[in-house]
Structures are given as C-alpha cells and as structure tokens.
Amino acid sequence: MPSLPPADSALGKLMATLPRPGRVEWIGLRPARGAAMREVEEAVAETGKGLSGDRYSGASGKRGITLIQAEHLPAIAALAGLDAVAPAALRRNVVVSGLPLIALKGRRFRLGEALLETTEPCDPCSLMEAALGPGGYNAMRGHGGWCARIVEGGRIRRGDALVPAGDAAV
User: Fold this and answer.
1) CATH code for the domain of 62
2) PROSITE patterns per the record (predicted)?
3) Quick one: pLDDT at residue 59?
4) Distance CA 2, CA 24 (A)
C-alpha cells in the first residue's frame, strides 16, 4: 500500500479530519464457499484471523473482514440498472455509514470492540455478474470497499461506532 503523507503536513491533517464516527448498518457471514450470506446482529472478530463463523476466519489475515460503505449501495444499484442492492448480494461482511471508508486507508480503527487495520481495496470478483446481472462487475469497480486485518478481537454489533484509532475527536 502506498505511504500516506506525513501526519503534520497540510494534506496529512486534511486526511485525518473526519466529520463524525461511522456506524455499523449490517453484518453478514458466509459459512462456506458458495453459501449465501447470513445476516447477523453481531459477530466476533478473532485476532489475526477473521469473523467467527465466516469462511475466511482462520485464512488470510489481510482479509479478516471486508467492509463496504452504505452510501455506495445506491450508486452500485444505479450503475447496475437496479432499483436497489441488498448488502448480502455484495458478499462483504460489514456495511458502514457516516464516513468515507477511503479515509481509513493505511489507518487503524475501532469497530465496536475490535481494532482493525485496512490492508487493501476489496475489488469485485466475477460473481458480481451473477449477483447484479450483466455489468455487475463494472458497477462495483471503485465501490467494492476495503479489506482489513483484525489487530485486536472483540464483538461487532449492528449500531456500533466506527472510529479511527488514536483520534481524540472525530
């Protein structure tokens, strides 16, 4: 991942300024490859692994959890020619609202009780064609969200705040 500007630079200060905390709107787990996402009210993030009960738990620490921004769902739907898109169709674990996920690039943040760190963009895969119809893959490009590793485990519940770590005020 490219380095961020120095925190004390003008751009670094702008990039660290967020208007408010984010909020968990939806949580989903996929127990096995090819299985449907299962909506849950809470999930347990396991340090260095993933979400308990998700197919990626225990796999790559870089993709311990996937996040997508709620504000992008209407854009994805519009680009795919749909009225709406259900979060489960997009196969991401957590939908958050209220802050731009791109602002968390290269940063650690608290999501409920867990401490996470962004690792890489969560690019769409070819399965988006089946989920969203022809053009679904391209509708998701630039809107796929982020992967994060779990630095400290804990519970994540619907309604929990997403707050950059180390920030006194958001």
Assistant:
1) 2.40.33.20
2) MOSC (PS51340)
3) 61
4) 27
